[in-house]
Design brief:
single chain, alpha+beta, 3-hydroxy-3-methylglutaryl-coenzyme A Reductase, Chain A, domain 2, Alpha-Beta Plaits, Helicase, Ruva Protein, domain 3, 4-stranded antiparallel β-sheet, 17 helices, globular, binds (R)-mevalonate
């Protein structure tokens, strides 16, 4: 099996990294070529959205050391923030010492919503829908023969009454739809639109909105990792100190929405980077994640951290993950296709499990730094390199200018410019 451990990767040139990544993932180097050009041509972009005037690039870094359900995965991450790729890779290395990440995913069930207004008797209408459920599901099921062929289709209907609102009462119908390897928005929206006339005939009301819900709480991915406590030790910090610091940091996020928002942002640093690299809809993932984090009525942490009977650190992360590997940008963006290929992904569930594993690793990286030396130290040297580049440093001068600023604890562009002048 190819390995996601590539010691010294950081020190290689860009071309060497690409060659090593291709070799490590058992791929033809051509597969990774889209990343050297940004992947998308202006002509292709012109067919994707409206009023196209050009392209917008982001760095893609490789998340290393990931072992997920016993499978080695090199994870492409598209992100502008320093420390994210390094943090995830380092934590994946620690998690690997405890067997890596264990992940499970529910069936890919998405929810389509229909809002039915102008109803004389809400309860009567609700019961009538349930009486016709079999027929409605059969109709919804016949809409997408391709999805059906791959085992997807309509699964259930649920009806709620909203007794009072700004417009009085109305019905909400949820169509539960198995979208297999698609993100599902198109399939679900189409199904809701097609069911609407029938729903109107049954209820005597008017179907107003017909749209997918981004609170994809039937499509959940769960990831767990165990980090041996001795692996957590570094510098003057014992493994127990780091472990207990991470658990105390989690306790804060669990009870305080102000902290939970930042804690979850750290998770999304990892999640979004992979979602973006694979051409998926990161706004949908963000919306679903935060709505899920607030499902109890109080916004809270998406992850948990504690210890097992042996005193090892145990982390879990559970969140909706509505990503696809067919349709949309995932199929037309060459870099997104390269990402799917590099990871050797065959199903959307597999992709979801990788994304949530990266989210958990990222969360651990942030909590470990926050609970020990603080976030700025690690951030500073990476940030310093960006500032050095912005000040005009090139080649080996980037590291020299950055190192000088870190030593002085002053990372500012005017100082970088001065150092550059002094060193020339
Ligand atoms: C910064 O992008 C993310 C963190 O703020 C996450 C956290 O506080 O847990 C470091």
């Amino acid at each position: 099996m190819p390995s996601s451990r590539i010691p010294g990767f950081y020190n290689l040139s860009l071309a060497e990294r690409l060659a090593q990544a291709a070799a490590a993932a058992d791929q033809n180097p051509e597969t990774l070529a889209p990343w050297t050009s940004g992947g998308l041509s202006p002509e292709a972009a012109d067919h994707m959205i409206e009023n196209v005037i050009g392209l917008h690039s982001l760095p893609v870094g490789l998340g290393l050391n990931f072992l997920i359900n016993g499978r080695e995965v090199l994870v492409p991450m598209a992100v502008e923030e320093p420390s994210v790729v390094a943090g995830a890779s380092f934590m994946a290395k620690l998690a690997r010492a405890g067997g890596g990440f264990s992940a499970t995913t529910t069936d890919p069930l998405m929810i389509g919503q229909m809002q039915v207004i102008n109803i004389a008797n809400l309860h009567e209408a609700k019961f009538k829908i349930y009486e016709q459920k079999v027929e409605l599901l059969a109709l919804a099921d016949s809409i997408d023969p391709v999805l059906k062929k791959f085992g997807g289709g309509a699964r259930d209907l649920e009806v709620r009454t909203i007794e009072d609102s700004a417009i009085g009462g109305f019905l909400v119908i949820h169509l539960i739809y198995d979208v297999r390897d698609a993100m599902g928005a198109n399939a679900v929206n189409t199904a809701c639109e097609r069911l609407a006339p029938q729903v109107e005939r049954i209820t005597g009301g008017k179907v107003h909105l017909r749209i997918l819900s981004n609170l994809a709480d039937r499509r959940i991915t769960r990831v767990r990792c165990t980090v041996p406590v001795n692996e957590l030790a570094f510098g003057d910090f014992s493994g127990e100190t780091v472990r207990d610091g991470i658990i105390a940091a989690y306790a804060f996020a669990a009870v305080d929405p102000y902290r939970a928002a930042t804690h979850n942002k750290g998770i999304m640093n990892g999640v979004d980077a992979v979602v973006l690299a694979t051409g998926n809809d990161w706004r949908a993932i963000e919306a679903g994640a935060h709505a899920y984090a607030a499902r109890s009525g109080q916004y809270t942490s998406l992850s948990t951290w504690g210890k097992d009977a042996e005193g090892n650190l145990v982390g879990t992360l559970e969140m909706p993950m509505a990503v696809g590997i067919i349709g949309g940008a995932t199929k037309v963006h060459p870099a997104a296709k390269a990402a799917i290929q590099l990871m050797g992904i065959k199903t959307a569930s597999e992709l979801a499990e990788i994304i949530v594993s990266v989210g958990l690793a990222q969360n651990m990286a942030a909590l470990r730094a926050l609970a020990t030396e603080g976030i700025q130290r690690g951030h500073m040297s990476l940030h310093a390199r960006q500032v050095a580049v912005a000040a005009g440093a090139q080649g080996e001068m980037i590291e020299k200018v950055a190192a000088q600023m870190v030593a002085e604890k002053t990372v500012r562009i005017d100082r970088a410019e001065e150092i550059l002048k002094e060193m020339k």
